[in-house]
Structures are given as structure tokens and as C-alpha cells.
UniProtKB/TrEMBL annotation:
Classification via PANTHER family: (+)-NEOMENTHOL DEHYDROGENASE, OS07G0685800 PROTEIN
Pfam families in the record: adh_short
Any one of the GO CC terms: membrane
Protein name as it appears in the record: Uncharacterized protein
Family as reported in the entry's similarity comment: Belongs to the short-chain dehydrogenases/reductases (SDR) family.
GO MF entry, a single one: oxidoreductase activity
Length: 214
């Protein structure tokens, strides 16, 4: 059994995920950096090893939308370390697409206006977003729970964004989601599954006042 802290970070090959990996590794945590793209994942590990001298980072392939891929990672962590101390669910995809590309060199306020103008949300994109951002996170937590319980200080960190704020929902739905004493997983699943259908039927504004995929 491994005696040091062990962490798994999803979507660790770039952006916030890579920075989280860097911070954990610099604090001596045994890190498993995961990504769906094997080449990019291994390049991220090489960067952390070469640029910062970390020797406590390894790569493992992971697709959070694939149960067999999650099971493979759980088996690896169990066999190698016998526990998991930190699970960081960082991987996510946007729930919208852009009808036109936006020049990244433009000032942020102008880019924000163009983003609002060109954003498009489709049934398939909404479905894919929820499959990754909701069910992917849920499946990871359920799969790793036994290994997290084997730790003396197991913890889960879910990275979100401002697009998941409850203030963007209708007052009725917001109050329901805030009532944590009566809210159930089944009800959350029901709401989640209904969203792509509302997008398809153009009923998002009517039913939820601008619900957005995170």
C-alpha cells in the first residue's frame, strides 16, 4: 500500500487542470494526470517533469463518458496504491458552439459581446455536455468512493464555472435545487435528462429562464 497522498485529476493536460496538477505535485502529492487524448496527456506529464523536475506525476488514459475507461483507472489506482486521497473532477466541455470564430486577440469586453452574439446551443451539444459534465463527474465519484473511503482524509473537488450559477434558473427551479434536505439524486437526474429535450423543443426560456450547460 502507498503511504503518501494520491490524487487523480481529470482533464489534467491543459488549462486549469494542468495548473491543479502543478500545484498538487509541488506539494508532494502522488499525482495521476488523466486525459482523453493519450498524446496530449503524456506531453503534459513530460512538461511537468522537464520544466519543474517533478518525479511524482504519471499519466493514465481516461474518458469520463466511458464506464470501462473509468473502471480501468479505478483498477489501476487500487492495484498500485490501495486508496485515493483526492479526486479532482476538472474535465468539462462547453454546452454551446460558436456560429463564427472569435479573434482571441480582441479585448475581453469585445470578445464577450461577440460570444453572446454567436453562441448556438443544439440538442446534440447539450446532450454531450451533460454526458461529460454531469454524468462523467457523477460516475467518477461513484466509482472511486470505495478507494476514497480507504483514505484517512479522502476528498472530492468538483471544478465548476459561472455558467452553473443557480441565479440563471427560474425562481421555482432555483428554490427546488436549494432545498438540499428534500432534493434527491433521482430528481436531479430527471432535470438533467429533460434539458436536451427542452433545447430541441426550444422551451429552455419558458421552463427555466436561460438554463445553461456548464
Amino acid at each position: 500500500m502507498y503511504v503518501f497522498s494520491i490524487a487523480v485529476v481529470t482533464g489534467g493536460n491543459k488549462g486549469i487542470g494542468l495548473e491543479i496538477c502543478k500545484e498538487l505535485a509541488s506539494n508532494g502529492v502522488g499525482l495521476i494526470l488523466t486525459a482523453r487524448d493519450e498524446k496530449r496527456g503524456k506531453e503534459a506529464v513530460e512538461k511537468l517533469t522537464t520544466d519543474y523536475g517533478f518525479t511524482n506525476v504519471i499519466f493514465h488514459l481516461l474518458d469520463v463518458t466511458d464506464h470501462s475507461s473509468i473502471a480501468s483507472l479505478v483498477s489501476f489506482v487500487k492495484n498500485q496504491f490501495g486508496k485515493l486521497d483526492i479526486l479532482v473532477n476538472n474535465v468539462a466541455i462547453p454546452g454551446i458552439e460558436l456560429s463564427q470564430p472569435i479573434d482571441e486577440k480582441l479585448p475581453q469586453p469585445e470578445r464577450a459581446k461577440l460570444f453572446q452574439k454567436y453562441q448556438v446551443q443544439s440538442y446534440q451539444r447539450a446532450f454531450d455536455c451533460l454526458k461529460t459534465n454531469y454524468y462523467g463527474v457523477k460516475n467518477m465519484m461513484e466509482a472511486f468512493l470505495p478507494l476514497l473511503q480507504s483514505s484517512n482524509a479522502g476528498r472530492i473537488v468538483n471544478v465548476s464555472s459561472t455558467r452553473g450559477q443557480l441565479q440563471d434558473l427560474s425562481e421555482k427551479l432555483r428554490k427546488e435545487l436549494e432545498d438540499i434536505d428534500n432534493l434527491t439524486v433521482e430528481r436531479i437526474d430527471q432535470l438533467t435528462n429533460s434539458f436536451p429535450k427542452h433545447v430541441r423543443d426550444n422551451m429552455v426560456e419558458k421552463d427555466a429562464a436561460q438554463i445553461r450547460c456548464i
